[in-house]
Design brief:
Protein name: Cytochrome P450
CATH topology: Cytochrome p450
Mean pLDDT: 95
Distance between the termini: 61 Å
Number of strands: 13
CATH superfamily: Cytochrome P450
Oligomer: single chain
Number of domains: 1
Family: Belongs to the cytochrome P450 family.
Bound molecules: protoporphyrin IX containing FE
Low-confidence stretches: none
Strand order of the largest sheet: 1-2-3-9-6-4
Length: 405
C-alpha cells in the first residue's frame, strides 16, 4: 500500500517511442532492449499504451510479485478479460492462485524429476541416431535438420502427443504471434494455421493423446476429480505451446553461438559439465520467450515510478538477460559464466516459472552432449537468419558444417 506522501513522491514512467513489434526490432531487438533499460527502471511504450521493464531487477520483481501483478489478464499484450476475439487462455499460465496452485500441484507431480530422469535414455538414443545422420551429411541446417528434428521426435514421445512438423510449427507460430498486437504478423500467422486448427484440437484431446503418457495421466487426474473438467486438454495445449518452439529456439541459439565461437566449443568438448552450461547460456544470451505480460491489479509503484491500475506491463526477459547491471559483459556468450541456472530469466521466475525446465534441459543436454562427444569442430557456412514472431525469438536458418572427432 502506498501512502499519500509516497504517492506524491512518485514519478511518471518515461515514454519510449519505439515499437517493440516492428519487423526491424523483431529481427534485431538489442538496440530496443538497450533503449528500454536506459530509459529507466520502467518505461511507457507509446505505440501500444503499455508499461515495460527491461532491467533484471524490475523484471524479476514483476514476475515474482503476483499479489500486485496478475496473470489473469493474459501473458500477451492484450487484456484477455476485455471484450475481443482472443486465443484460448492457458488455465495454468494465465491464472492466479488458488486456481493456478491447484493445477500446478498436479502437473508438478506428473513432471517430477524421477519421471524426467526416466526419459534420459530415450533422449540419448535419439540424439546419438541423429548425430550419426548429421555426421554423414556433414553440412545441414542446424534449425530444421538438427534442433527441430530432435525436439519433434523427443518431446512428443516423452509427453504423449503427436506432433507432425508442418502442423506443429504453424500452430506454434500462430500462438506466439497471437499474444502480440494485431499486426501483419498476427493476421498472417492466424491465416496460415487455419488448416491445422481441427488437427490441433484432436491431438490435445483425450482421444488424441498417447495411452499411458503424461498427457493421458492429466485426463486421469481429471477423472479422479483432482483437476476440473476441461483442464487436462488445456494443460496439454500449454505443454505443446510452451515446450516445442521454445526448446527448438534455445537449442538453435546454443548451436549458433558454439559454431561462431570455436574456443567455447572446445570448452564444452573438454568438460562434460559445460554441456549444461552451454544451453543455459544459449537461452540467456538469446532468450526464446522474449517478453511476457502481467497486469497491474491496482495503482502501484515500481522503483519509484507510478503505475496506473489495470494496465499491462511487459517484462522483456530478453532485455533483462543482457542487463549489464546484472551480467558482466552481457552481450558475450560465455559457458564459463558463474551460476547461470536460476540467475537468468529465460525460464521465468516466481510461481509461473517454467514447469518444463528440467525436461528442456534434459533434451538439450542429450543433443549437445552427443554432438560434443563426436564432433571436433563446427562452423557456419552462411550467416544465420531469424524468423520474426511477435512474442518469440527464434532462428529461421542456421547453415552449418561439422567435422567428426
Ligand atoms: C528452452 C525451453 C523453454 C523456455 C525458454 C521456456 C520458457 C518459459 C517461461 C519464460 C515461462 C514463464 C512465462 C511467464 O511467467 O509468463 C514458462 C512457463 C511454462 N512453461 Fe516453459 N519454457 C521452455 C520449455 C518448456 C517445456 C519443455 C515445457 C513442457 C512441459 C514447458 C511448459 C511450460 C508451462 C506449462 C508453463 C506455465 C507454468 C505456470 O504457469 O505455472 N516449457 N516457460
Amino acid at each position: 500500500m502506498t501512502t499519500a506522501a509516497e504517492a506524491n513522491a512518485l514519478r511518471d514512467a518515461p515514454v519510449l517511442d519505439i515499437d517493440p513489434y516492428s519487423i526491424e526490432v523483431l529481427r534485431d531487438p538489442y538496440p530496443f532492449h538497450e533503449a528500454l533499460r536506459e530509459a529507466g527502471p520502467v518505461a511507457f511504450i507509446k505505440a501500444h499504451g503499455v508499461y515495460a521493464v527491461g532491467r533484471h531487477a524490475e523484471a524479476k520483481t514483476v514476475l515474482s510479485d503476483h499479489a500486485r501483478f496478475t496473470n489473469a489478464g493474459g501473458i500477451g499484450i492484450q487484456d484477455i478479460r476485455k471484450p475481443g476475439d482472443f486465443r484460448i487462455p492457458s488455465r495454468l499460465l494465465e491464472a492466479d492462485p488458488p486456481d493456478h496452485t491447484k493445477i500446478r500441484t498436479v502437473v508438478t507431480r506428473l513432471l517430477s524429476p524421477l519421471v524426467i530422469r526416466k526419459w534420459k535414455e530415450g533422449f540419448d538414443r535419439k540424439a546419438e541416431a541423429l548425430v550419426d545422420h548429421l555426421l554423414e551429411q556433414r553440412e545441414f541446417d542446424g534449425v530444421q535438420d538438427c534442433a527441430e528434428r530432435f525436439i519433434l521426435e523427443a518431446f512428443p514421445a516423452a509427453v504423449g502427443v503427436r506432433l507432425p512438423r508442418t502442423e506443429t510449427l504453424a500452430i506454434g507460430e500462430m500462438r506466439f504471434n497471437q499474444s502480440g498486437p494485431r499486426n501483419a504478423l498476427y493476421e498472417r500467422a492466424i491465416e496460415a494455421a487455419q488448416p491445422y486448427l481441427a488437427w490441433f484440437e484432436e491431438s490435445v484431446s483425450r482421444q488424441g493423446v498417447m495411452p499411458d503418457s503424461i498427457a493421458e495421466l492429466l485426463f486421469r487426474a481429471e477423472d479422479a476429480g483432482e483437476l476440473d473438467e476441461g483442464i487436462a486438454s488445456n494443460v496439454v495445449r500449454s505443454f505443446v505451446g510452451g515446450g516445442t518452439d521454445s526448446t527448438i529456439a534455445g537449442i538453435g541459439f546454443t548451436l549458433h553461438q558454439l559454431a561462431k565461437n570455436p574456443a567455447q566449443w572446445q570448452r564444452v568438448r573438454s568438460e562434460p559439465a559445460k554441456v549444461k552450461a552451454a544451453f543455459e547460456e544459449g537461452i540467456r544470451h538469446e532468450t526464446p520467450f522474449q517478453v511476457t505480460y502481467r497486469t497491474t491489479r491496482g495503482a502501484t509503484e515500481l522503483s519509484g515510478v507510478r503505475l496506473d491500475a489495470d494496465t499491462k506491463i511487459g517484462v522483456f526477459m530478453g532485455a533483462a538477460n543482457r542487463d549489464p547491471r546484472h551480467f558482466a559483459d552481457a552481450d558475450r556468450f560465455d559457458v564459463d559464466r558463474p551460476a547461470l541456472a536460476g540467475n537468468h530469466l529465460a525460464l521465468g521466475s516466481g510461481i509461473h516459472a517454467c514447469i518444463g525446465q528440467m525436461l528442456a534441459r534434459q533434451e538439450s543436454e542429450a543433443l549437445i552432449g552427443a554432438l560434443a562427444r563426436r564432433v571436433v569442430g563446427m562452423e557456419l557456412t552462411a550467416p544465420a537468419t531469424y524468423r520474426p514472431i511477435n512474442q518469440m525469438r527464434t532462428l529461421d536458418k542456421l547453415p552449418m558444417r561439422i567435422v567428426p572427432a
